[in-house]
Amino acid sequence: MKSKNYVDVIVRHKFTVIAMIILCGLFALIYSYAKPQAFSSNISMSFHRVNRETTVDYQYDNYYSGKAVEILSNTVLGWLETPNVIQEIYDEAGVKPDDIYKDTRKFKPKQVSAHQVEVKVASNDRGDLENLSAAVVSVMDKKAKELEITSNGKNSFDVISEKPIIVEVKYNPLMLTLIGLVAGLFLGIGLAFLWEYFRGNDE
Questions:
Q1: What distances in angstroms separate CA 97 from CA 37, 51, 127, 197, 201, one per listed residue?
Q2: Which helix (H) or strand (E) holds 119?
Q3: What pTM did the predictor assign?
Q4: Would you say domain 39-168 falls under CATH 3.30.70.1130?
């Protein structure tokens, strides 16, 4: 089909295209104001090696301690992607998950440095999010301390966290409307060509 024919198809069904643009734009605009509240929390945790056993023969203790903390940080990332650990966080927070496998995807951990991990958590309830944020730190601290115990019965790792930053997730109505208009344009053009295709088959 030549480019001129493509234009002819769109012109013949211009009202369909315009209608889809308007409908999708209106839907996006209404959604931007009617959508339920959503909140996001940013949790920052730093992991440190503590209660190290000193020995005169161990010359590279600082190096290996740093590597141990880096491995712990990687382990924490794995924990926060596991439904069993997420269920433990929900239990600690006293929040009932809707679907633990879907709710696991609400936790997005990221390793910022060898010693630091940031976790983003999403929820529609600010109170639940505050409890979940605190539970993330509490559970990670507990699991890190249980991971390795010295000969003196002391934990080898400690977790230092800052107060979680909780913000409301907001969408720009203008931006959503523009996205809706563009989506409506492509949808309208798609319907126009689909209409032409079935009409050609009927003939």
A1: 18, 37, 14, 47, 51
A2: strand 116-123
A3: 0.67
A4: yes
